[in-house]
Amino acid sequence: MAANSSNNSITTQLGSDGLGQQPWWVLEWMELINSYRYKKRLERAWIYAREGNVLSIRFEGRKVQAQVQGTEAEPYRVKLWLDVLTDEDWEFVLEALSQKARWACQLLAGIMPQDIERAFAASGRRLFPFKLDEVGSECSCPDKANPCKHISAVYYLMGDRFTEDPFVLFQLRGRSRNQLLQELAERRRLLLQNSSAPAKQTAGSNNGPDPANWWSYNSPLDPDLVVITPAIEGGTGLAEAGELPLAEEPLHPQANQLFLERLREHGNQKAQLAMVEAMAAAASGSP
Questions:
Q1: What is the mean pLDDT of residues 242-248?
Q2: What's 142-191 look like in SS3?
Q3: CB within 8 A of 45, min separation 6: which ones?
Q4: What is the model's pTM?
Q5: Which helix (H) or strand (E) holds 76?
Q6: Is residue 27 a contact partner of residue 35, using CB atoms and an 8 Å limit?
Q7: Mean pLDDT of 2-27
Q8: Is the confidence at residue 1, as pLDDT, over 80?
Q9: Which backbone phi and psi does 223 adopt, to 5 degrees?
Q10: For residue 80, which of 56, 102, 62 has the smallest C-alpha distance?
Q11: Which residues pair with 81 in a beta bridge?
Q12: Helix (H, G, I), strand (E, B) or coil at 78
């Protein structure tokens, strides 16, 4: 692939494999352009994207600016943009994102959460355009149809860029990668800080609660009401945690699956040990 040297630049030519295997957020973006009814124009746009007719693609503010070589000597100028969310909209989105640790972890790992639109629903807005005509675009070519083949070629290359960096979509909506992650990290810090405040007050110490006592319960229990049972099947907490943001390793494609299996085995072993200790304590009459 050919790419410009600027940090603001985007790849301007698809590789020989096209877009290759695409993550779900790229498929979501590509579904819009592939729904366009003028298929011949899309075929020509695909060729433009493959053969390097797109000379440059850059972010200028919240818009994508591109130059596409067509049939004329002078390249055509293309602009592409989405409606930018207001600061008030982003307040709702960031508040929703910060409330769910899994979303924060996945975004920090460069993964687009599959249910990300639930966070944007808090503002009444969307991250992904719902229809193709929600993507603003202009081209200096004489073709009155929109999107023309020059705009569509840029559209395909934007999908290629989303594969590498899903935060491009956030940038089009008004928040850069750094802005989003910094604001999200700060909100998560405040959330955790506030959630620990009641525990500190209960402990009656400026040093906070003693971790050694987190799982202790010293009040007397009625033995007729206490039943010791093993955890239900699959009760290791992994299901509740959701999809873990594990990095992919092409040389070891089964590594993540093996890691999760070992993690479940470890959790089950610890659960069995806890069961044995609990039953022994109950038999001895210990609290």
A1: 66
A2: CCCCCCCHHHHHHHHHHHHHHHHCCHHHHHHCCCCHHHHHHHHHHHHHHH
A3: 147, 149, 150, 151, 152, 153, 155, 156
A4: 0.58
A5: strand 76-81
A6: no
A7: 53
A8: no
A9: -60, -25
A10: 62
A11: 136
A12: strand
